[in-house]
Amino acid sequence: MQREIALTDTPNIDEAHFQIIDTEALLTPERATHAPRILLLYGSLRERSFSRLMTEEAARVLTRLGAETRTFCPSGLPLPDDAEADHPKVQELRDLVTWSEGMVWCSPERHGAMTGIMKTQIDWVPLSLGGVRPTQGKTLAVMQVSGGSQSFNAVNQLRILGRWMRLLTIPNQASTPKAFLEFDEAGRMKPSPFYDRMVDVMEELMKFTLLTRDNKAYLLDRYSERKESAEELSKRVNLKAI
What we know:
It contains 8 helices and 7 strands. With 242 residues, the protein is α/β, with parallel strands linked by helices.
């Protein structure tokens, strides 16, 4: 005999902070009119850096799609914990992350992983900055270039980091093998299925950014955090005077 379960019986929920989904707030937010702001990061400092060249191609496509783009040059960025947060390059990076509404991360694959240069940039972006989470709810596209055969090690690691930084990482991604064959002498990416995939990724990034940037606050409004905030407020208000 099947036991009937009362599907609305949720005694562990704090009703004061439980909210039914507001479809109007979710689906019809007030729309911004400025160009989506996209920050691009790359992970190599070589003079002929294929991650930088691919990032430049992505920026061109994003601009064609209507975005405002800025690219951070990691040259001169200190190792994490080897300088204070007021270091000029650290401040430049953090200001750009705060400015952005979406990001593109493109790393070479080195020793089967993303480069230390790529990870250093991400490590300098804090989860919280002055009470504000600078990455939470923003969109992210991940790409990689490889010197050898096709691989997805770097993009898989970048996805893990994106999730940890609470970024909305889009489903599509780009991985370009034997990158030394995919760029001409002028540093432009040659026509190929790899180029087409990069265009696909930028197109998808723009769509997700436009869909989510205006209702980010509602998307990030969580039951557990509303409950915790109320509890913390109650503790603070009810503290006895010392």
